[in-house]
Write a structure and sequence with these properties.
This protein is mostly beta strands. The protein has 3 helices and 30 strands. The strands form 2 sheets. It has a 28-stranded parallel β-sheet that branches. Strands 25-28 form a two-stranded parallel ribbon. The longest helix is centred in the N-terminal third of the chain and has 13 residues. The chain is elongated, with a radius of gyration of 23 Å.
């Protein structure tokens, strides 16, 4: 699917033409499995259904409500009209136990491209969904296999009741994109929050005023889960993720991990790792990172990261702000502060910002930031690097530039970095 086709599908205009199937094929009355779709019991409007009133969920925290949510989803799927969703699923106040993977969302038919689905809770911590599958490995509460675009989650809390379960699996070759989370929260111990896989899209995703709590064996948002891509060269197409006004306060794990590149913006909020991994991970040891960008080679358009107006609280040496190995692209921190614990004895030894530099960068810039410890710069073996790093009007709380702020490879020249009007406390 070309980028033009993808954009047309995103806004619903060309979907029917792509498949040659008209709108009537996706109405509940004409679907072959229509008799198996459980109908609402008391909805006053067929497009707005209630998992309690219409599908019998209890929301008491002990009754297994898997079937009620699965029926609500299948009903919404049966109401597709010209590939466009026509259903809002309401989740009233309560605590809902779900044990069946995919019960909340199970988009398993990529032939039936769908656009528009909304889950609406009563508010953060008011409507809670506890996912407790019998076996956590490979168990996801939501699955979207190249089918749905434009999915919204509002006012919901998601808790892992089985340590190591995962929240959302999203596979795309052009048919999964545009997710929006507003006023949501994640708690409990997860393997993955949202795991992205495939090629071409899995993009345009937004989180607003959400809280990321709990713990993550891998990451809250992870790109390139299984390399199931039909075209490995397109595995890099993970674009446009926006996090705004976030409370990222979790126990351990990675917040964002993008082995296959990404274009990511994080604006405003507080980011804190409150603890330490209970045992060393084979890839990370005891460390937890907010932003982990491994692998050097990516398409240029998917090596872009921007963080603005964020307070990072570094509570120990096992917390990493960023570890970036990109061979190009841009990294920009603007008006950020990680000096909350700069007075503690471990602070000067922190290496919470880490980069691997080559002749094309990445281009790294810090503007009006307050920074603790030293910044670690590894190199790709190039002895004389161009100027790719700049600190502009920053406060360096622990080290002067000439006495240790740059932690370098042995024998590496520091000429790649410039300091402009920076402040060094005495």
């Amino acid at each position: 699917m070309t980028d033009v086709d993808r954009r047309k599908l995103l806004y619903g205009g060309a979907a029917a033409a792509l498949t040659g199937i008209g709108a009537a094929a996706y109405t509940a009355a004409d679907t072959p499995a229509a008799e198996a779709v459980r109908q609402p019991r008391s909805a006053t409007h067929p497009g707005v259904v209630d998992v309690v009133a219409d599908f019998g969920a209890k929301g008491d925290g002990t009754t297994d409500d898997s079937r009620a949510f699965a029926d609500a989803y299948r009903y919404a799927e049966s109401r597709l009209d010209d590939h466009t969703g026509r259903t809002v699923i309401d989740v009233p106040p309560g605590k809902y136990l779900i044990t069946e993977p995919g019960a909340l969302l199970d988009g398993d038919d990529p032939r039936n491209a769908a656009n528009g689905l909304r889950f609406r809770g009563a508010g953060l911590r008011i409507s809670e969904i506890v996912f407790a599958p019998e076996k956590p490995d490979g168990a996801f509460l939501c699955r979207n296999d190249d089918m749905w675009q434009n999915i919204a989650f509002e006012g919901l809390r998601f808790t892992s009741g089985t340590p190591g379960a995962s929240f959302f699996s999203s596979y795309s070759t052009g048919g999964a994109a545009n997710y929006r989370f507003t006023d949501c929260e994640w708690m409990g111990e997860w393997e993955y929050g949202i795991a992205l896989d495939g090629t071409n899209t899995n993009s345009e995703m937004r989180w607003e005023a959400c809280r990321v709590g709990g713990a993550y064996r891998r990451a809250f948002l992870y790109s390139g889960l299984s390399k199931r891509s039909e075209n490995p060269e397109q595995q890099d197409q993970f674009l446009n993720y926006w996090f705004t006004d976030m409370n990222v306060t979790y126990e351990w794990g990675n917040f964002l991990e993008f082995p296959y590149g990404g274009s990511v913006t994080c604006r405003a909020g507080s980011y804190i790792v409150t603890g330490r991994r209970p045992s060393p991970h084979p890839d990370y040891g005891y460390e937890s990172a907010f932003f982990r960008f491994p692998r050097k080679q990516h398409f240029s358009s998917v090596q872009r990261f921007h963080a603005e107006d964020i307070r990072f609280e570094l509570r120990g040496p096992d917390t990493v702000v960023i570890d970036c190995e990109w061979g190009g692209g841009t990294v920009h921190f603007n008006d950020c502060d990680d000096t909350a614990n700069a007075f503690k004895s471990f602070a000067p030894g922190l290496r919470a910002h880490r980069y691997t530099l080559g002749p094309r960068g990445p281009l790294v810039r810090y503007d009006s930031c307050q920074l603790t410890g030293a910044h670690r710069y590894r190199t790709d073996g190039t002895s004389q690097l161009p100027t790719t790093v700049r600190y502009d009007m920053c406060l360096l709380a622990s080290h002067a530039p000439e006495s240790g702020f740059l932690a370098l490879d042995e024998g590496q020249d520091s000429g790649f970095a410039r300091f402009v009007d920076c402040v060094i406390p005495t």
